[in-house]
């Protein structure tokens, strides 16, 4: 491990600073140095961020940068960066640009060759993943799903058969509805609901989707929430040689080559292509 190096703020540089997601003790020393040293801090909610800065005695000027002014404000921030100001970008919690404003100004800086740096910090999705105990060798982060059920289910259809742990953010008042839509689209699935991460009442709720739906119908959830679903595990359909032969015949009648049809049926039923071939061959012999 190298020596601990505190930040030296460079002029004309955008600093993407991770901030705590609940526990103020999770701020990094480097982030504090940068927040003190820049000319301006662009914050998602200036009133929320002022509490964080006051706690650490940081008096750097603030400007708002949120989803409703992001495009226009990104241009303004870039102009100030081009004039040599050093600017830090923060969100209400976690990493800017990850389910929070930030992508617009980051992309503009990259297009214009403006230096930027990322100061790592807390992330709710990754923290929830480890707390949940879900498989983490491969996982997908989706952030927030659409707020309306119809649009939500339509999007979930794209994810239903992915062989990865999947991570979603959700508001407490939509949790039950989202769990119900997940159950309808994904079917019964091992799931974790992780709440109030790094805070006093942090909790992990694990079970099937149906049990979690009943749990949170009985006890309304509070606080920020991550929902994690276990990977899809395909279950081969039941059926024997009769079904294999019938489906091979149907596919070949639709124009598929017999060899390809047997391969498709073998994959569907989780058997070898040779077994399907032997089944088809035995019918011809009879």
Automatic annotation (TrEMBL):
The keyword Cytoplasm applies. GO terms for molecular function: rRNA (cytosine-2'-O-)-methyltransferase activity. GO terms for cellular component: cytoplasm. It is found in: Cytoplasm. Its EC number is 2.1.1.198. It is an enzyme of class 2 (transferase). It holds the Pfam family TP_methylase. CDD domains: RsmI. Keywords: Cytoplasm, Methyltransferase, rRNA processing, S-adenosyl-L-methionine, Transferase. Its main location: cytoplasm. It catalyses: cytidine(1402) in 16S rRNA + S-adenosyl-L-methionine = 2'-O-methylcytidine(1402) in 16S rRNA + S-adenosyl-L-homocysteine + H(+). It comes from the Bacteria. InterPro entries: 4pyrrol_Mease, 4pyrrol_Methylase_sf, 4pyrrole_Mease_sub1, 4pyrrole_Mease_sub2, rRNA_ssu_MeTfrase_I, SAM_MeTrfase_RsmI_CS. Residues 13-212 form the Tetrapyrrole methylase domain. Belongs to the methyltransferase superfamily. RsmI family. PANTHER family: RIBOSOMAL RNA SMALL SUBUNIT METHYLTRANSFERASE I (PTHR46111). Catalyzes the 2'-O-methylation of the ribose of cytidine 1402 (C1402) in 16S rRNA. This is Ribosomal RNA small subunit methyltransferase I. It comes from Desulfitobacterium hafniense (Desulfitobacterium frappieri). The lineage of its organism: Bacteria, Bacillati, Bacillota, Clostridia, Eubacteriales. The gene is rsmI.
């Amino acid at each position: 491990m190298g020596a601990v190096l505190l930040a030296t703020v460079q002029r004309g540089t955008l600093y993407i600073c991770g901030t705590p997601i609940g526990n103020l003790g999770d701020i990094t020393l480097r982030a504090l140095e940068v927040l003190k040293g820049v000319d301006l801090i662009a914050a998602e909610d200036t009133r929320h961020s002022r509490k964080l800065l006051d706690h650490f005695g940081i008096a750097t000027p603030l400007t708002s940068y949120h989803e409703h002014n992001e495009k226009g404000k990104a241009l303004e921030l870039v102009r100030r960066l081009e004039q040599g100001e050093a600017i830090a970008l923060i969100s209400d919690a976690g990493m800017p640009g990850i389910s929070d404003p930030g992508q617009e100004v980051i992309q503009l800086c990259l297009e214009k060759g403006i230096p930027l740096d990322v100061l790592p910090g807390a992330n709710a999705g990754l923290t929830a993943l480890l707390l949940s105990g879900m498989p983490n060798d491969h996982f997908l982060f989706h952030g927030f799903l659409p707020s309306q059920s119809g649009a939500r289910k339509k999007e979930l259809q794209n994810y239903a058969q992915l062989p990865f742990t999947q991570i979603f953010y959700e508001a407490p008042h939509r949790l039950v509805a989202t769990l119900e839509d997940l159950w309808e689209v994904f079917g019964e699935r091992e799931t974790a609901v992780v709440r109030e991460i790094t805070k006093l009442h942090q909790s992990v709720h694990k079970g099937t989707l149906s049990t979690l739906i009943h749990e949170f119908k009985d006890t309304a959830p509070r606080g920020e929430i991550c929902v994690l679903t276990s990977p899809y595990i395909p279950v081969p359909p039941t059926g024997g040689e009769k079904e294999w032969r019938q489906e091979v015949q149907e596919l070949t009648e639709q124009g598929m080559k017999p060899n390809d049809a047997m391969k498709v049926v073998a994959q569907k039923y989780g058997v070898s292509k040779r077994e399907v071939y032997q089944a088809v061959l035995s019918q011809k012999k009879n």
